[in-house]
Prior knowledge:
48% helix, Glucose Permease (Domain IIA), eight-stranded antiparallel β-sheet, two-stranded antiparallel sheet, alpha+beta, 3 helices, 23% strand, 2 domains
Amino acid sequence: MRINKDNWIRFFDRKGFYIVLFLSVVVVAVTAVYFTSSNLKKLEEFRKAQQEEINSALDTNWDYEYEEKLAQAQEKENKKTESAEVMNQPTKDTISQESNSTKTATENKESKSLTRNKEVQNKKDSAVPVTTDVATSNTVVQKTSNSNLSSLTLLKPVEGDIVLEFAKDKLVFSKTLQEWTTHKGVDIGGKLGEPVLAAMEGIVTKVYKDPKLGNTVVIKNGKWETRYANLEDEILVKEGEKVIKGQQIGKIGESAKFEIAEGPHLHFELWENGVPVDPTGYCK
């Protein structure tokens, strides 16, 4: 039977699309079934592996807990045995207490003996007249000397009026800075070149040029310290030198940059144990 080519073309034009679609659906379905089956197998194998790991971990923990409990029970038993042995033996503290009690009894006997000897000696001493006037006078002299050391009287280093007062806990107005500020000393007015005298005796511990107060000399005596600033460049003492009260140490100058508007004066400070105090109450 001869098949006409035109009839084949018409057949595929009408039904060919549906045949191709059907074949495609079949291929997709077969592929999906294959991969699904494969994935299910892998999932089941993974689940079994996880379960085995969990079982193994549980077994291991149980063994560990069992061994730990067994070790704790054995340790408690050992402690009970050691405690019983210690209770049956005399302790070091008991021996020490017995030894201490023996020593205490011996010391008490010796103490009583010494007390009796002192009483006898005191009776002998009471029979001998003793004069205490010399000792008493020495004590009075010593107390008087200490009292003089603790007091302080300063010589006024410059004869002049105070142009700027002491102000540690309050503020005073600075003409140079044009502001209210603290002031750790007093400014005593004077003339340029006027002699500056040591207000107390002591040792010159420092001679330097302060960036604010200019040429400065520091004299220390015990807990007291005097400072002289705004001096001329010519300083008449040097560090380490011992000076006496009233000795000239320099002259009034104009070296204090922070107090230049206050006019010629001496900036004078008094410190007690490292703390600035008002020197006016110590000057004659």
